[in-house]
Structure formats: structure tokens, C-alpha cells
């Protein structure tokens, strides 16, 4: 028989000889940077010692490692604990401290509603018993919960001010190692920096993120966490202002950073502008497999043309995405457009296509305007850090500045965006077979070149068949494909 030991705050029937025989231990650590779980192990050892002191038998340990009670994220261990208390699988709970159980009053109320009707006592190693059997005990528990929430909110406020101060000073506040830099977040990693510059150039040249990610993975380049690249991860990395040596607080650039830039600011702005261009394909799904799918337009209604498989005869066709206005063999249309574009890029005057419309624009005034706006943001940040303004005031005051900086960014980006033809024309001029150079380009690069240079319209087939056509065989009439220079 378990020896009777008086426990302060335990229900009356338990004091009279019905002490809990089955105790649950709950342990939690908000942050486990090493992943070793040492914090929860220490808590468990202390809780087991407390249970032995009370004469309780530990039948289950519920653990939530590296999970905050304040964030509101699901805590599987905690939910299992409540379920077992409801089911009567355990009679009491032992925890290292009350703040391990809850940081939010709403969670405390749920815990009271589960434990109080069942007379399940809670014992803490550091704060003694939690009496949920009496109104005064529940009042104390609620006060402890309110204090715990205040401490967390005050800690968050201090951390936010510290991060803002670090950002305005251009210092790295610390976090996961950023790609392109060594673990200290400041020293440039030469191998990753070169990969970052290459990826930025590819984006400026119109290559799709999926293709760039696939190339990086094939070359053995991994993310800063050691994982493989995908389009979303790559896009997020390339958009980071820190690549241009800019310091950020809550998504806003607040000044120059102390770490060296990997990309020139104009280049970074150009990359962001290309990635955020509404005309760029950003919806999930399979990438295009045919040259003109989604690029060419229907000659009847102007809707985009899409590719579809056809069973009889077995082939891929281009058809209008809106209605059945046309049906053209995709392979033949792509071959015709490829021949036209290769012939144009092989001409002696092809380099004239490399001159961007805004290449002669002076960016000095734009940079001065952007620097002035950035200085105003830094001053607002300092006012917030000194407590002169609160968070809502900071947000309201930066709204106008943010809008102005976005307009300046768009103007700067227009002068820095690279040409998708960079390198292609020189390669074609040197190669004995320009078509082979074109065939060696990634599909997304070829599509980007077409998007910049020409507009392709596909027309319905005229009546009749061309000479030499055999029944049951596909045919192609070049007159059904109209190619015009793209509008600037």
C-alpha cells in the first residue's frame, strides 16, 4: 500500500487515504538549440524525484521539446496529457514549474476544467502544489498564469527592441546561418557567394527558379541548412535584402549593414523586380514542357494557347485555352518559330537587341532619394527603440515611406534588369550551328527570350490541304503562325 503523506492543496478525500497512485509527469522546453533534449531530461529527473517523495508512481511522461506554450502552436504531449486525465488514466500531474504547463490564460482555464472535477492534483517541483479544488486555489493559479503571460510579453518586447537596435546599427541579431555567409552571419562564404551571384544572373536572364534550383542541386550546392533547393526556397533566399548588404527589421530595410554585400544593390533590386513581376509564372503546378504553351495567343479571340495531348494521331497539339478555335501540331509550330528566332539572332545586327530602353538613365538621383527615405526609417526606428513612439505609431509612420521606396525601387529595377540575350548572341555568332546553341538553352531561358523579342499568334488552319499531304498525317502551314516584334 502506498504510504499516506500529507500534501498541501490536495482534495480532502485524497488526504483521508486515497492518494493518487498513478502520476503523470509533463516536461517542456521552449527552445532546444542543440536538439539534445537535455532540458526535458533534467525536468523529468526532478519531477520523478518529487513524485517519489510524495509516494506517487509515475506511469507516463509527456514531453514537448522545443515548443513554446505562448505561441499557440499545437503541443502533442500536452494534448495527450489532458486526454489521459479526462479518461482517468492518470490521477495526478507533476511538473517542474507552472509555466511549463501554460503561458496563456485560456489554456489554464481548460486545464482547470479537466482536472478540478476529477480531483486530480498538480504538484510542481519549484512552486509547490497547485490547488485547483478550492476557489482561492484557482484564483492563485490564475494569478500565476497572468504573471507568466506578463513575463513572456515583457521578454518579447525587450527582444524586439534589441533586434530593432541591432538592425538600425547594421548588426546581425543572430539566427539560422544565412546562405552566402559563414556561421557568424558576417563573413562571406566564397563558394556559396559565387552560387548566389550565378543564381541572380540566371534570374535576370529570365531563367525559371525551378530550372536554377535543379542546376544548383545537380552541382551539389545545398541550402544553409544542408537541404536541397526548390523554387520557393530559392526565391525566398534571393529576395533577402541582406544579400545587398542591407539591414532589415520586420521586413523593412532600415539601413546599411556591417556585413559585406554579395550583390550590388541595383542587381538585388533587379532580381526582386523580376521575381515579383506579375507577368512571371508564379502559380504552383507543372512547368511548361512546350516552347509556346501559355506564350502564343489565339488568332481568333486572343486567349493564351495551351498544349494538349492528342490520341489519334498520337501527338501534342496547341489549342485555344478559351474555346476550340484552332488545333495546330505543337512540334511543327515550335520548329518553325525556332528557325525564325535563330535566323534573327544570327544576323550581324543582333547585338542591337541587347540595348535596354532605360540603359542611359541616370540612377544617382534615385539612389539619393532612396537613401533619404531609408534615413527617415532609421530615425523612426530609433524613436521606437527609445520608447518615444509605440508599435502602431511606427507602423502608421512608415506606411507612406514604404510606398515611396517601392516606387523608387521599381525605377531602379528598370535600369538594372539584365537582358535574357546576354551571352546567347555571342555564342551564336561563334558557333558553326546557331540552332545547336539555342537547343542547349534551358526551356525557361528560350521562353524568356521569345517573351522579350516577339509575339506569336496562331491562326486556325485554312481550308484545303497542302500539296503532298497524306490522309491521317498531321500537316503544318507556316501561314497559320504570325510572328511580330514584342511591344516595348
Describe this structure in words.
The protein is of the alpha/beta class. The chain has four domains: 12-150, 3-Layer(aba) Sandwich (Rossmann fold), CATH 3.40.50; 190-275, Putative Large Serine Recombinase, Chain B, Domain 2 (Hect, E3 ligase catalytic domain fold, Alpha-Beta Complex), CATH 3.90.1750.20; 297-356 and 420-485, no CATH class; 364-416. 44% of the residues lie in helices and 13% in strands. A five-stranded mixed sheet has the order 2-1-3-4-5, with helices on both faces. It has a three-stranded mixed sheet with strand order 8-12-13. Strands 9-10-11 form a three-stranded antiparallel sheet. Strand 6 (246-249) and strand 7 form a beta hairpin. Helix 7 (190-204) packs across helix 10 (265-275). The longest helix has 34 residues, at 135-168. It is elongated. Residues 1-18 and 32-37 have low confidence and may be disordered.
Amino acid at each position: 500500500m502506498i504510504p499516506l503523506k500529507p500534501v498541501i492543496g490536495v482534495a480532502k478525500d485524497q488526504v483521508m487515504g486515497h492518494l493518487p497512485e498513478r502520476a503523470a509527469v509533463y516536461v517542456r522546453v521552449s527552445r532546444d538549440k542543440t536538439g539534445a533534449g537535455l532540458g526535458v531530461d533534467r525536468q523529468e529527473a526532478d519531477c520523478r524525484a518529487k513524485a517519489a517523495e510524495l509516494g506517487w508512481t509515475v506511469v507516463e511522461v509527456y514531453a514537448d521539446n522545443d515548443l513554446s506554450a505562448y505561441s499557440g502552436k499545437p503541443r502533442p504531449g500536452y494534448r495527450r496529457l489532458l486526454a489521459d486525465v479526462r479518461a482517468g488514466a492518470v490521477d495526478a500531474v507533476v511538473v517542474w514549474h507552472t509555466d511549463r504547463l501554460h503561458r496563456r490564460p485560456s489554456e489554464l482555464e481548460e486545464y482547470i476544467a479537466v482536472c478540478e472535477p476529477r480531483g486530480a492534483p498538480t504538484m510542481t517541483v519549484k512552486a509547490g502544489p497547485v490547488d485547483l479544488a478550492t476557489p482561492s486555489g484557482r484564483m492563485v493559479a490564475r494569478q500565476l498564469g497572468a504573471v507568466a503571460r506578463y513575463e513572456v510579453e515583457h521578454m518579447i518586447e525587450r527582444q524586439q527592441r534589441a533586434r530593432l537596435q541591432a538592425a538600425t546599427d547594421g548588426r546581425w541579431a543572430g539566427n539560422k546561418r544565412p546562405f552566402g555567409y559563414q556561421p557568424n552571419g558576417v563573413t562571406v562564404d566564397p563558394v556559396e557567394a559565387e552560387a548566389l551571384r550565378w543564381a541572380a544572373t540566371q534570374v535576370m536572364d529570365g531563367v525559371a527558379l525551378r530550372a536554377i534550383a535543379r542546376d544548383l542541386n545537380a552541382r551539389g550546392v545545398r541550402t544553409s541548412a544542408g537541404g536541397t533547393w526548390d523554387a520557393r526556397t530559392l526565391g525566398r533566399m534571393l529576395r533577402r535584402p541582406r544579400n545587398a548588404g542591407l539591414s532589415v527589421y520586420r521586413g523593412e530595410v532600415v539601413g546599411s549593414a556591417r556585413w559585406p554585400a554579395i550583390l550590388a544593390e541595383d542587381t538585388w533590386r533587379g532580381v526582386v523586380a523580376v521575381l515579383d513581376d506579375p507577368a512571371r509564372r508564379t502559380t504552383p503546378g507543372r512547368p511548361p514542357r512546350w516552347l509556346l504553351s501559355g506564350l502564343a495567343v489565339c488568332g481568333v479571340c486572343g486567349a493564351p494557347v495551351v498544349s494538349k495531348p492528342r490520341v489519334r494521331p498520337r501527338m501534342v497539339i496547341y489549342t485555344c485555352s478559351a474555346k476550340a478555335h484552332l488545333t495546330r501540331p505543337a512540334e511543327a509550330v515550335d520548329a518553325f518559330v525556332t528557325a525564325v528566332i535563330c535566323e534573327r539572332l544570327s544576323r550581324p545586327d543582333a547585338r542591337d537587341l541587347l540595348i535596354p530602353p532605360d540603359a542611359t538613365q541616370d540612377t544617382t538621383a534615385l539612389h539619393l532619394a532612396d537613401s533619404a527615405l531609408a534615413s527617415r526609417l532609421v530615425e523612426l526606428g530609433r524613436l521606437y527603440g527609445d520608447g518615444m513612439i509605440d508599435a502602431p505609431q511606427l507602423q502608421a509612420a512608415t506606411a507612406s515611406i514604404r510606398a515611396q521606396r517601392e516606387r523608387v525601387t521599381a525605377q531602379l529595377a528598370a535600369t538594372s534588369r539584365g537582358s535574357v540575350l546576354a551571352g546567347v548572341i555571342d555564342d551564336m555568332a561563334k558557333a558553326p550551328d546557331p540552332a545547336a546553341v539555342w537547343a542547349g538553352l534551358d526551356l525557361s531561358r528560350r521562353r524568356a527570350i521569345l517573351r522579350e523579342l516577339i509575339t506569336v499568334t496562331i491562326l486556325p488552319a485554312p481550308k484545303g490541304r497542302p500539296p503532298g499531304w497524306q490522309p491521317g498525317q498531321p500537316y503544318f502551314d507556316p501561314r497559320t503562325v504570325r510572328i511580330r516584334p514584342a511591344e516595348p
